[in-house]
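WARN retry 2 of 3 for item q-0093 after timeout on previous attempt; input resubmitted unchanged.
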Amino acid sequence: MHELLLHGSIPTSRHRQVLSILAGIAAMQPQPFHERHLIYKPTRPVSRTATQVGGTQAVQSKQNTPMQAMQGAMQGDLFYLHLVEDLTGKTDGEVDGTRAERGVGDGERMAGIDEGGGSNEQPPTSTKYTLQFRDIPEAGPRRPVTSRLITDIPITAGDAAAFMSAFEYTLVPSFLPPPSPPNPLRLNNNNKKTSHTTTHHLHGHRLTYSATSILLFQAPSPSPSHQQKQQQLSILQLSIRVPDASKPLLMDRAVKELIALKEMLRGVVEVDVVERGCLDMRVR
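OK item q-0093 returned
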């Protein structure tokens, strides 16, 4: 799966105004969302294969399971992975009391995904966690949108922490310092990573315009209380997912839709391609 992206940032004081404009464009009521992202790092190096930087963009995985497909997409590189918990609708007390805050799991067997990555039982109606892999964006000439390979794997039952441990990943400090203009998505400062916390929260609203997913969220923070104290920037993300990047017609159609929405937002909020390094989740 490929994802095409555009990003922009606004002062949090304009969040409500911009959200109202987006609701008018999308002709729908914004849907609130709240996610907690736990950052995981591989515990041991893997054998690296010869590949160009960003080369995973061309991979069309033919593996039998989502986990095998994700490992194939990495092509020997080491990546941070996000284990995402949907906290939408939960109160602060419920958020603080979830198992993720105590290490995600409580010793249950990983029932949703077996050791090979395949499903070993019928999934329940709701997803507890989602494992996210994000490749480094494509290299090459400047493009009108960001393009990268992504994989989302639902973890529907069992102990997510134990599963990550079995997958040889460990929970580590994240590298998302409090953002400041003009690069709200930058992951490093002077090429030096800055450690803050093992988790960060995304809290905002989502809308849909045609095939485009629109997210307007407050800049990442370690906790909801920290977020309330430092509401400085909101980030706007426009994205379209393309199941097969080898089909130029699908890619061109998605690019044109994103550019058309960008033009509609001109004068309201400027969205553009961010630096590749801002979205680089490889382990250094």
